[in-house]
UniProtKB/TrEMBL annotation:
Family: Belongs to the class-II aminoacyl-tRNA synthetase family. Alax-L subfamily.
Name listed for the protein in its UniProt record: Threonyl/alanyl tRNA synthetase SAD domain-containing protein
Pfam family, one: tRNA-synt_2c
One BP annotation, GO: alanyl-tRNA aminoacylation
Coiled coil start-end: none
Upper taxonomic lineage: Eukaryota, Fungi, Dikarya, Ascomycota, Pezizomycotina
Names of the cofactor(s): Zn(2+)
GO-annotated molecular function: alanine-tRNA ligase activity; ATP binding
Annotated source species: Penicillium canescens
InterPro entries: Ala-tRNA-synth_IIc_N, Alanyl-tRNA_Editing_Enzymes, Thr/Ala-tRNA-synth_IIc_edit, Transl_B-barrel_sf, tRNA_SAD
Length: 272
């Protein structure tokens, strides 16, 4: 069993570097804690769904790993000592209500255990991050297309997970709306509009399914905009322009209890 290694202040917030620079794929930072999942407080243990309880949760001073939330899956990757091969495989990242980022996974072997204060290198899985970022940006493109075509329809939910990606709206859409939405989406991709990230004070607008993922502890809200044409509170990762998403396919339109779901997809093989 791995030893319990705790920081002096377990409530220390993790600085999420990807919020300001989503291009980072490697970063050197400091270990705050490393402990078995079954020793975590109950509220944190609940964040490790489908992760074996004997696996490990690591916290660091900073992170470049996106934590699952806001309709987007978490990053995966590795953490290791400086100037050495990675020794910890990261399979899931979650954020606690008090701002800690828990990197769930396992060591290559027991002798690889990190110690508090140790400097380590984080490495994010580049292809998976790019795919997730393209899916998330594609959702915003679909949302902008809907905003331009049917501004009266209110967005109620978004999902940017692979094979589940969709945008949901109050009101009824039908199959005849599909080619119209597809045409507008294609146009926005072709225009290669820049994805702009900014921060605003006291923003009260709802985001794309989970605006809390974009809210900082000092009350600011992170805003994602496609070429200045829209304004969405968002804590997710994005590619730099709409053109980098590649082709977006509107797969189907479905309806249930007055809510219409616009399902979409992108090719997983294009680098963002």
């Amino acid at each position: 069993m791995y030893p319990l290694i705790n920081t002096r202040n377990q409530a220390t917030r993790t600085e999420a570097l990807y919020l300001n620079d989503a291009s980072l794929r490697t970063w050197t930072t400091e270990i705050l804690s490393s402990q078995s999942i079954n020793t975590l407080p109950e509220g944190e243990r609940c964040l490790a769904k489908n992760i074996p309880v004997e696996e490990i949760a690591i916290t660091t001073r900073q992170t470049i790993f996106y934590a699952q939330g806001g309709g987007q899956p978490s990053d995966s990757g590795a953490i290791g000592p400086r100037d050495h091969e990675p020794t910890f495989s990261v399979t899931l990242v979650r954020k606690t209500p008090d701002g800690k980022y828990l990197h769930f996974g396992r060591y290559a072997d027991a002798s690889s255990t990190f110690t508090e204060g140790q400097l380590v290198v984080q490495t994010v899985d580049d292809s998976k991050r790019n795919y997730h970022s393209r899916l998330h940006t594609a959702g915003h493109i679909v949302g902008l297309a809907m905003q331009l075509l049917m501004p009266e329809m209110k967005k109620v939910k978004a999902n940017h997970f692979p094979r589940e990606a969709s945008m949901e709206y109050e009101g009824l859409l039908y199959n005849e709306n599909k080619p119209i939405i597809q045409e507008k989406v294609d146009e926005l991709v072709k225009r290669d509009l820049e994805i702009l990230i900014s921060w605003e004070e006291d923003c009260k607008e709802s985001g794309d399914g989970d605006d809390e993922e974009g809210r900082s502890f000092d009350g600011r809200m992170r805003i994602a905009s496609i070429g200045g044409l829209d304004h969405n509170p968002c804590g997710g990762t994005h590619v730099g322009t709409t053109g980098l998403v590649g082709a977006i396919v509107i797969r189907k339109i479905s309806r249930q209890k007055g809510i219409s779901r616009v399902s979409y997809d992108v090719s997983p093989g294009i680098e963002g």
